Amino acid sequence: MSSPGSFRLSFASLRMPFSDGVKYTLLGISVSLFAIAALILTWQLYQYFKRKPKPSGKVKSYQSVDDKQAGKTIFEAADKESDIQKHDYKVQKLEDEIKKLSRCLSATSSISEQDSADFQSITEADAQVNIHGKLRFSVSYNREQSQFAVTVLDATDLPVRDFSQSTNPFVKVKLLSGSLSEQPNLQCVLQEWETKTVKNSRNPVFGSQFSCPLTEKELKTITVKLEVRDFDRFSRHSVLGELRTHLNNLNLLSHPVEISEELQKLNKDSVGEILLSLKYLPTAQRIEVGLLKIKTASLTSNQDKALYARVTIVCNQCRLKQQKTSLKSKWGITVFNEVLTFSLLDSNIRECVIAVSVYETIVHQKNSKRLIGQAILGKRKAGEDEHWCLMMQSLRQPIAKWHSLLI
Question: What is the mean pLDDT of residues 360-387?
């Protein structure tokens, strides 16, 4: 058995199996790492002592004889500051509620006039009250230039709004034609114009003339529709009445014709059909609106024109949500096959109205969109739509149905 002395001797005689060059290299690396660590520690200490202490809002130094009185003052100031913050929070909350209510009461004031048309049409029929008054206009045709012209002259004895006792009338002129469609019930809007707005006048004078090229054959199929509306900057434009004139009944080839007639109730025209599917998911509180196909009056394709649809959910005359589809090239029957999903509360879903507005736009041209028709379904004053009732009876199943596009 070896003694402790012999063990120490053998341990001292051990040698590392490295050359002197390797040993000095390892020693240099160790010294370098130690120096780097020392520099980092020194820099951290410097930054720590250089940093200034943050002032505390709760701790304040007072040079006062009575320390209790100073402490009482501090707590009173803190309580006042807390009360001010609570008051500011309540005021901010009330302002947010007022903004929400203002958006609901005037849902169309924050959007453009063209985009607000889908919301206006939902209650447009109900706004037609006290239809009376006359509209005078003239139509003419230049056979040499094949040019048709319509001149809106004036109106008399227009109704006024009850709350303001005034009216700001303007006239929207449309040229409707059914010759481009194989279906006699569908109309095609060839042209659309608007006169200037005459402020605060029940007997406005317009004097606006509009013209477009038409052949004698097309002239016999044209219907001139003039809609008299009351301009409202902060709400929807009220409908004051309309006039229609079939050019086939007039002898325009010989001389211009002037017409003055009583305003009639506004009647919408069918310009196409749209195939929609509805599916209601009560557990997920979701409604799915599928836009499948759109059938328009024109059967000829035009690669420069495209269609898209905007679906708007309205409840209690307040716009809740809206989405739009992608652009599709316009054909006689344009296929979309798109599904738009809306997450709403169950109470809103059961009381809402769905407005589908179809727009036509020219590709690669800005600000060229034009509303060509709308389909509105859901709960309204006249009752529930048939399609809506079928959706409520067939939960979690898509129900498809054709709807007329009206303008």
Answer: 84
Under DSSP, the state recorded for 183 is S
Q: What is the CA radius of gyration of the chain?
A: 39
Q: Which of the residue ranges 106-120, 123-137, 230-244, 389-403 would you say has the lowest mean pLDDT? A: 106-120
Question: What is the maximal distance between C-alpha atoms in the chain?
Answer: 142
- Look up the pTM and report it: 0.66
Instruction: Count CB neighbours of 252 within 10 A.
Output: 20
> Which pair of structure tokens corresponds to residue 85?
């913050």
How does 83-104 read in b/e, with b if 16+ C-beta sit within 10 Å?
A: eeeeeeeeeeeeeeeeeeeeee
| 400 in Cβ contact with 277 (< 8 Å) | yes
Going by pLDDT thresholds of 50, 70 and 90, the confidence category of residue 214 is: very high
Chain CA centroid to CA 386, Å: 27
Tokens 């008399």 — which residue? 156
Show the tokens assigned to 325.
């589809």
**Distance in angstroms (rounded) separating the CA atoms of residues 374 and 358:** 6
Distance CA 375, CA 326 (A): 18
| Spatial contact of 195 and 171, defined as CB atoms under 8 Å apart | yes
pLDDT digits (tens, 9 = 90+) for 376-394: 998 776 667 889 999 999 9
Cβ-proximal residues to 195 (8 Å cutoff; 6+ apart), any chain: 152, 170, 171, 172, 173, 206, 208
Give, as one character, the DSSP assignment of residue 199.
P
- Interval 50-76 mean pLDDT: 51
CA 88 vs. chain centroid, Å, equals 32
Can you tell me the distance from the alpha carbon of 166 to that of 168, in angstroms, rounded to the nearest whole number?
A: 7
Chain centroid offset of residue 317 CA: 15
Measured distance CA(95)–CA(97) in Å, rounded = 5
182 CB contacts (<8 Å, ≥6 apart)?
A: 299
Give percent of the chain above pLDDT 90: 45
- What integer pLDDT is reported at residue 124 of this predicted model? 54
Tokens of 110: 């924050």
Could you tell me the CA-to-CA distances from 406 to 189, 246, 328, 355, 363 in Å, in that order?
11, 19, 20, 11, 24
